[in-house]
Amino acid sequence: MKLLLHLAWRNIWRQWRRNSLIIIAVAIGVFSMIIYDALLRGWQLSAIEDTVNNMSGHMKIHAQGYVDDPSVYHHFQLTQELKSSLAQNQKIRMWTGRINVPAVVVSERETRGLSLIGIDPQTEKQISFVGGVKLQGKMLEDINSSGVVIGKKMAEQLETRLGKRIVIMTQGKDKQLKEIGLKIIGIYDTGVEALETSFAFISRSKAQKLLGLDNGVTEISIRVQDGVSLESTQAELAQSPAIKELDAQTWKQLNRQMAIFTEFAEYNIWIWHFIMLIALAFGLVNTLLTAFYERIREFGLFQALGMKPGTILKQVLIESWLLVTLGLLLGFIFGAIGLELLSDGIDLTAFADGLDKMGFRKVWVPIYMWQDSVSIVVMILLLGVFASMFPAWRAVKMDPVEALNKH
User: Fold this and answer.
1) What SS3 class is residue 101?
2) Quick one: 40 exposed, middle or buried, by C-beta within 10 A (0-12, 13-18, 19+)?
3) Contact 216, 77 (CB under 8 A)
4) 22 in helix, strand or coil?
5) What pLDDT was estimated at residue 258?
6) Are 75 and 216 in contact (CB under 8 A)?
7) What's the Cα-to-Cα distance from 193 to each of 6, 151, 162, 317, 357, rounded to whole Å?
8) How far apart are CA 207 and CA 209, in angstroms?
9) Contact (CB, 8 A) for 344 and 362
10) Number of other residues whose CB lies within 10 A of the CB of residue 241
11) Contact yes or no for 388/319 (Cβ under 8 A)
């Protein structure tokens, strides 16, 4: 094996210009896969994180029918049995009960529609963006707090400001119009217009009193432990006596559009890998075949001297592996440099208005996962094997006498 490695290494540099080109081609392919993977992973993971943070959680529990008709009529009681069932589930890290109903907010000058969210601030801060949002004024302090917190963009649309009063109108449990005047105690700034115009937060007890729900809520938002399967948690909750009559769904089921987008990113990574591998395979096969035809007499001489066909096969395979391995190493070096240059993210503020409306971040930060490195290494090494199979087969099958007579 040592001899074969020595011969393969020397053979590579006998035609150093041609082999250098294929090494660089492999390196560029690996570099493109690393950067492309990191960019898509960055978008994919940030989209999932934002979806989970933006009032969704990993899972939600609703009354039957609420998802199709998100109104106060589809509420349920936050019983002690339900609380205990959630607290005892080891897969659940944190949960919070909310009231989430459509409402109209009226200022001195303007009227807008949004979702009125009744929250328990102590638990909500550990579930959603409420806990880390930039704030002018203050957030609700506890479940009985007075006042309302609205988004920065909503405040602009309503032409109002901190300390002013607004009127919120919605439909109560008795199907009568309910309204309440509240002072704006906080204005949150997420940098995302879609969020800042979607929600107004009041305390849960205030919302329950307004709607006549006693201890009722319209949803429970859940965060699971790291690494826990959402599907298995959902199945467990469905079997719980306190929850089986309710509707537990994951964020993927509740936000199908975002789930499809994130799944598409996964498929896109594999499609790009496949395209790169096909392109590299043509170049590698061409290089190895050219090298084979240039060395026909050499292979014939080896066979005439007693070298076994299996040994010749090994030599061709080793040469191919050396080529792709050198390209692989060089590609990872280029990739590491590229990721370092992009570590602060890609500034997309030039497209800020459009991104805000769609709910995307203004800075696109690449995230590289070690699992992608493993898949790249395995695919490139397998490429080396498959690309060398035909040239190796030709080398093994040729007649030594005929090969020695080649000019």
Assistant:
1) strand
2) buried
3) yes
4) helix
5) 84
6) yes
7) 63, 9, 18, 57, 6
8) 5
9) no
10) 9
11) yes
What is the per-residue pLDDT for 251? 92
Residues of the chain with pLDDT under 50: 403
Which stretch of DSSP H or E encloses residue 406? none
Give the number of other CB atoms < 10 A from CB of residue 84. Answer: 12
- The DSSP string of 335-383 is HHHHHHHTTT-EE-GGGHHHHHHHT--SEE-----HHHHHHHHHHHHHH
Q: What is the pTM of this model?
A: 0.76
> What interhelical angle do 16-51 and 370-397 show, nearest 10?
150
DSSP 143-209: TT--SEEEEHHHHHHHT--TT-EEEEEEE-TTS-EEEEEEEEEEEEE-S-HHHHTTEEEEEHHHHHH
DSSP-derived letter for residue 52 is I
Closest CA to 145 of 169, 121, 171, 128: 121
Note the residue count of the chain.
407
